[in-house]
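Appendix B. One record, verbatim.
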Amino acid sequence: MDKLLLSREKINKIDEQMARLFAERMEAVREVAEYKAENHLPVFDASREAEIIEKNSALIENESIKAHYINFLKNNMQISRSYQAELYPELSSGVLYEKENVKKIRVNLEKDSYDIFLGCGLLSHAREYFRLDRKVLILTDSGVPCDYAKEIATKCKEAFVYTIKQGEASKNFDNFKAILEFMAQNRFTRTDCVVAVGGGVCGDLAGFVAASYMRGVDFYNVPTTLLSQVDSSIGGKVAIDLDGFKNTVGAFYQPKCVLIDPETLLTLDIRQVRSGFSEALKMATTSDAELFELFENGE
């Protein structure tokens, strides 16, 4: 038997073992779903999934395959969530969204007041919260799953998705100018809008573009990192960097609405999750005793 056949035979045996383990795993998933249904818990648990990824990926010593294993874990968890929602439809995001899963936080700023909506599955319901019956520029970056921007685009009358390179370096004058030119070339008017889909870089840049184009168009924010959900998407601070200095050129320009969908956190690595929790803990320590107590109690 040649080397190829030997290797394939080895894979076949491993696949047989994995099939048996998969069946065992899905039985455990069913038991978890049953418990969630009895206790009215949602399918998605960001902290639990981040913990699984961190713990299990540490078992892979070969760095060249670790990223592939993390993707394998994420796919497993996606399958598990789908199976749980299939067994108990009331656990699916859409049903929870309709019934009780949306929280509204009002940011009171007189004429610039706006609402923040928080709930699983909100991304697919953006039309109910944003005015998308017009031209919409959706600004995202290369590190954000493209499905997020596409989901928003399907809800728009006329959508234009503009993708920048991931990272702080993209918050610059060149991108700012290019996006404004893109809007002008596509005949955006003062009645159209900009939607940010991504982390703080997307929100800052999109907000400043919205504040500047034709002296200001409507701006909506869909933060997809935990840090941007608890920090940069709130407060209306929009800016770009200049000569290596962060947020040197910008404005205070409030969004019309913010949608926070915890399911967008599924693609984050543990470092980014911790970064967001650290910011929340910092604010709790300095400004919010009730929130700090939740951290102390592990809630």
